[in-house]
Amino acid sequence: NARAFILCNLLDELGGEPPAETPASGSLTKLATIYLAFLSAALDQDTNRFCNFMSHGRRWREGSGSEDSHARALWAAGVGAGRSRIVGHRKLSAHLFERGLPLVESFSSPRAWAFTLLGIHEYLRRYTANPQVNATRETLTRKLVTLWMRCATEDWPWFEPSVTYDNARLCQALILSGQWMPHSESAAERGGSGAAALKLGLQSLRWLVSLQKTQAGHFR
């Protein structure tokens, strides 16, 4: 549902429509409303954690979802807050994003940090003056940079000892954050330099692309 909500917002921004075989009632607005309603229902009001799996009987199957699923929900909410043309969608998305964001600093999943940074980037397209969100971006960016510094070598310029899933999102998060974060000396002293993040994001992405290609040159 988070992925679908992101897609609906991007298609709407481009002036796209659902495929021709989609029923007329399945407009982008209607679909986005359905997906956002699911995300809203998934947020536990007591813990501010997003649930993930729902049974056919519409009961949540766990008290809280994985760190990755929580962060994907934040990414989607950030997109809704930053891009949606529907006022109600923007307000609800911003509310969900702000409720679920503070928990991520305690997460250990690098991909959860990355997904959240993508959501922060989207949220700040509209709500630029939120100091908490800007501070969280700096913290999570620093976590990814630190992870890279601890693991990377000349022959293995990567964040972890293995390359697993959603790899390019780590690079993307550093590139986007690095472009928008301060490039000042004071930021660099705190380990939150945008220039450093951008450099590592591009370096790691180039290496990843060189690995994940077939002999025919196709990316996989």
Keywords:
mainly alpha, 220 residues
Task: Give structural notes.
The chain has about 220 residues and is an all-alpha fold. Helix content is about 60%, strand content about 0%. α5 runs antiparallel to α6, α5 crosses α7 and α6 (about 130-150) packs across α7 (about 165-180). The longest helix has 21 residues, at about 130-150. The radius of gyration is 18 Å and the shape is globular. The chain starts with a helix and ends in a 9-residue tail after the last helix.
Largest sheet: none
List the total number of helices.
Answer: 9
Give the total of beta strands.
0
Low confidence ranges: 185-191
Percentage of β-strand residues = under 5%
Straight-line distance between termini = 24 Å
Task: Provide the gyration radius in Å.
Answer: 18 Å
Quick one: overall form? globular
Class from helix and strand fractions: mainly alpha
Helical content class: 55-70%
Mean pLDDT score, rounded? Answer: 90
Strand-and-helix sequence, N→C? HHHHHHHHH
